[in-house]
Structure formats: C-alpha cells, structure tokens
Design a protein that fits this description.
Layout: H1 32-52, H2 55-64, H3 73-84, E1 87-91, H4 97-105, E2 108-112, H5 129-136, H6 143-154, H7 156-161, H8 165-177, E3 180-183, E4 186-189, H9 192-195, H10 200-206, E5 211-214, H11 217-221, E6 233-237, H12 240-247, H13 252-258, E7 275-277
Parallel strand pairs: 1-2, 3-6, 5-6
Antiparallel strand pairs: 3-4, 5-7
C-alpha cells in the first residue's frame, strides 16, 4: 500500500496500487454480472441525457460510442488524448487529496475499477466505475471544461499549504459533481453526481424542491454540502468559459477570508444570491 494505510475502510483493493495509486486495468477480470450492471445503468442514464444533460455531454457521449459492455480504458484513451490531451488512469477507489490533485494537474482522470453490486444500483457512497466513467469522462472531451479540470488540480498544493482543501473541494462538489448550466433549451446538468444518478438527474433540473442559484465562486466556497442526500442547492453556470475564468482567479484571499468561518447550511438562500429558483425548503441565513 503506497502510504501505509490509505484505503482502509474503503472498498477497493489498494494492495497492488503504485505510489501514484494507479493500478493495472484488468478488463478481462470483469464478470458477466459486472457487465450486466453496466448495461442496466448505461441504458437507464442514456435514456435521460437527451432531456437533462448539456449538449457538450450528449455530443461526447455519442462520440465515445459506448455500448452494453464496460468500456476498455485503452480504447477511450486513444480518442480522448487526441481531443484534449486527457487520459484516464485506473485506481482502486478514492485516493488521497494530494495524489488526486496531482493526477488532474497532469490531465489524468482517476477512474475507479470496481463496479457496484446489483443491490446498489440506485445509490452508493463511494464512487465506482460507472460514476467515474459515465459521469466524468464525457466532459473531458470539451476543451474549456478540460482546461478547467487541469486548473483545479493545479490549485491543490496551495489549498493544502493554506489548510483550505475544504473550500477548494466545495468548488469541485458544486460544479464538477452537481453543476447546472443555462442553455437555449433551458437548464441542463453537467455534474457527474447527477448525470450518473437515476433519480437526481431529473430532480436537479426540474424539481421545485431545491434552490437554484447563479454561479458565484465565493458563495460556493462558503457553502456546506451533504454527500448522502439530494443536493438542497444547485449552482448554475452561464457557460464553461465562466467556470474556467473562475479557476484562473487568486484563491489565497478567499481562503484567508473564509477558511475559519462556519459554512452556510446547504439549503440557505442569502439576500445577495442571484436566485433562479427558490426551493420549497429554502433556509434564511443564520443570525450572525
Ligand atoms: N479520489 N478517486 C477519487 N475521486 C475523487 O473524486 C476524489 C478522490 N480523492 C479526493 C477527492 N476526490 C476530493 O476530496 C478532492 O477534490 C479534494
Ligand atoms: Fe465524482
């Protein structure tokens, strides 16, 4: 194990991991059941993306020509490298923050090798192959989003040095995992968390329950999130250029200002928010 213990309590097999936490992808080791679970999840999500995903995701998904079997990482890399210089690397599951940042900074996206079990079709706590691949890989074909993901990785060492990974991680969570974007055809999802979720995809785009608030970097960095329930607030981009521009800002002053403050609860609506939709259970800000 690369650093004597990371991985304990996690599902993956970390015993064969290299120092950068990558492992060999053993496509032939997937069972018929693994492929069957991929097929079920793939068909179920593919049927929804035309209605709920952003165009960039839909186009890339078509270009990937995925089918009913778990994809070969090599074949994906052959086309992804040409498109944006990104490639995917196989990992046992979650990896330490510093290692994760370092991969992104090198345009390498870590994809978990194991598949969820039949009883976990609708919900798993740790990211698996389906979430990592179906949710994250298609947007790596978009040059602007691909540039943002590298920039995010490059922000890691500074955030670690300034004890501010929590704030940087919120930026990833509310965008890369659960971001919405405004398009000529209405709000669409680009976050991997909902694109890989049977029930949260439609919910994020059209349910009256959650808040939808215009993108604001400071606001996101100050907002707590839940990992075990649908999001209570989604943040909405106007364009991926806006996301990339935010990643080029100096984060050090934001870390200094907000690092030691409690986060806003996820359902909070602030007077300063640019509200697209106020959810049914929106919370007023805590009294100071
Ligand atoms: N590891 N495999 C994997 N996938 C992630 O999304 C991930 C991770 N390690 C750390 C991490 N995410 C986040 O906490 C960072 O964005 C801070
Ligand atoms: Fe993810």
């Amino acid at each position: 194990m690369p650093d004597g213990g990371f991985g304990q309590g996690l599902r993956g097999d970390y015993s064969q991991a290299r120092p950068d936490y990558t492992v060999e992808a053993h496509w032939r080791a997937y069972s018929a059941d693994d492929h069957a679970i991929w097929r079920q999840l793939f068909q179920r999500q593919s049927a929804q993306v035309e209605r709920y995903a952003c165009d960039e995701f839909i186009h890339a998904l078509k270009a990937l020509k995925l089918d009913d079997r778990i994809p070969h990482f090599d074949q994906v890399n052959a086309i992804l490298a040409n498109a944006t210089g990104w490639r995917i690397v196989a990992v046992p599951g979650l990896i330490p923050d510093d290692v994760f940042f370092a991969h992104l900074a090198k345009r390498q996206f870590p994809v978990t090798v194991w598949m969820r079990k039949p009883e976990e079709l609708d919900y798993i706590v740790e990211p698996d192959l389906f979430h990592d691949f179906f949710g994250h890989v298609p947007l790596l074909f978009n040059p602007v989003f691909a540039g943002y993901m590298e920039a995010y990785g490059r922000k890691g060492p500074e955030a670690l040095a300034l004890n501010s990974v929590k704030l940087l991680a919120r930026f990833y969570w509310y965008m890369v995992e659960f971001g919405l974007i405004r398009t000529p055809r209405g709000l669409r999802a680009f976050g991997a968390g909902m694109l890989s979720s049977h029930s949260e995809l439609a919910y994020s785009v059209e349910s009256p329950e959650p808040n939808r608030v215009r993108f604001n970097l400071e606001r996101i960095m100050r907002t707590d999130y839940k990992i075990d329930a649908f999001q209570e607030t989604y943040f909405v981009l106007d364009s991926f250029d806006e996301l990339f521009a935010a990643s080029q800002r100096d984060f050090a002053p934001l870390y200094a200002a907000y690092r030691d403050q409690p986060g806003f609860p996820a359902a909070t609506i602030l007077p300063t928010d640019d509200i697209i939709h106020k959810g049914r259970r929106a919370l007023a800000p805590r009294a100071a």
